[in-house]
Amino acid sequence: MFSVSRPNTVPQSLTGTNKDYRSEEVLLTLKKMFHGKCYLCERANISDIQVEHLDPHQGDLIKKFNWNNLFYSCSRCNSIKSHTHTNILDCSIANHDISHYLILECPLTNNRDIKVTVRENSPSTQQSVNLTLMLLDECYNNTSTGIRGISRSELIKDIQRYSFQLQKIKNELLFPTEPLAQSEIDLKIEKLKAMCSPQFAYSAFWKWAITLDEDLSELVGNVF
Ligand SMILES: [Zn+2]
Questions:
Q1: What pLDDT, on the 0 to 100 scale, is given for residue 121?
Q2: Of 85, 100, 113, 224, whose CA is between 20 and 30 Å from 144?
Q3: Sign of CA dihedral 17, 22, 24, 26
Q4: Which residues of the chain have pLDDT under 50?
Q5: Beta bridge partners of 73
Q6: CA of 157 to the centre of ligand 1 (A)
Q7: How remote is the CA of residue 184 from the centroid of ligand 1, in Å?
Q8: How far apart are CA 154 and CA 91, in angstroms?
Q9: Cα-to-centroid distance, 219 and ligand 1 (Å)
């Protein structure tokens, strides 16, 4: 998960008499706010878009059209979260870097699970952190139906594609085949930092891949 900043202005289609939370206005505002990524799995440029209610509305009209309750999601994560996962961390709360709470690790082979763990000394909202861990574990690893098996397979391959890019840059930095100029080292470090920005696909994975690596963390510094 990654943190976002929610515009204060409530879209007009959520006020007045004919409310519509799937209007073009709401969708385009959410797309920009979430950088076109699913707020749960962080897949980028999603086209299977769903407007997700963080607090499931279950017919409650206030929750259904509450701007602060609307999130940009892919169809896989939306169907997994459904109305069964509640008290999930809110990534749109200001000054609250949500990626710091849960460690995400991509395996080397795609028949292994994505590892989701709680960071040591996690903050006092422990229950929400644990419930979010359970949800993300399902979003990344659930293969309970034919569709989920295929979407999970594509998801992990997409994450691994970026993971290999990071490993390639790491290899070039730590084991260069010829001496690197400082400008070349700086450029590679900037590329690693760019992977950690909220705009980049699966950014929380790369923050942890750098933070948990003693060589990369020394070179790149704090990415949270
Ligand atoms: Zn998703």
A1: 74
A2: 100
A3: positive
A4: none
A5: 50
A6: 14
A7: 35
A8: 25
A9: 31
Let me know the angle formed at the C-alpha of 72 by 37 and 131, rounded to the nearest 5 degrees. Answer: 95
Q: How far is the CA of 169 from the centre of ligand 1 (A)?
A: 26
pLDDT of residue 95: 78
- Which pLDDT score is estimated for 124? 52
Q: What is the pLDDT of residue 125?
A: 65
Distance, CA of 204 to CA of 70 (rounded, Å): 21
Rounded distance from Cα 37 to ligand 1 centre (Å): 8
Distance 174 CA to ligand 1 centre (A): 33
Amino acid at 42: E
Residues 36/201, Cβ–Cβ less than 8 Å: no
Terminus-to-terminus CA distance in the chain, angstroms? 13
Residue 116: strand pairing partners: 104
Confidence (pLDDT) at 96: 79
